[in-house]
Amino acid sequence: MPMCALVSMCAKGQETNDKQGGIVGMKNQRLNLNKKLLMGLAIALVLGFGLGQDASAKRGVPDSFAELADQQSHVAVNISTTKTVKGIRRFSPFGGREFRDFFGDEFFKRFFGEKPEEELKQKSLGSGVVVSEDGFILTNNHVVADADEILVTLSTKEKSEPKKAKLIGRDPKTDIALIKIEVDKSLSAARLGDSDKLRVGDWVVAIGNPFGLGHTVTAGIVSAKGRVIGAGPYDNFIQTDASINPGNSGGPLFNLDGEVIGINTAIFTHGGGNIGIGFAIPINIAKSVMAQLKEKGKVVRGWLGVTIQTVTPAIQEKFGLKKAEGALIGEVTKGSPADRGGLKRGDIVISFDGKKVKKMNSLPPMVADTAVGKKVEIIVIRKGKEKRLAVTVGELEEETRLAATTTPEIEESFGLSVQELTPELAESLSLKGEKGVVVSGVKRGSPAYEAGLQRGDLIQEIEKEPVRDMDDYKRIMQKSASKKQILMVIRHRGHTRYVILKK
Question: Do 385 and 451 belong together in one domain?
Answer without folding.
Answer: no
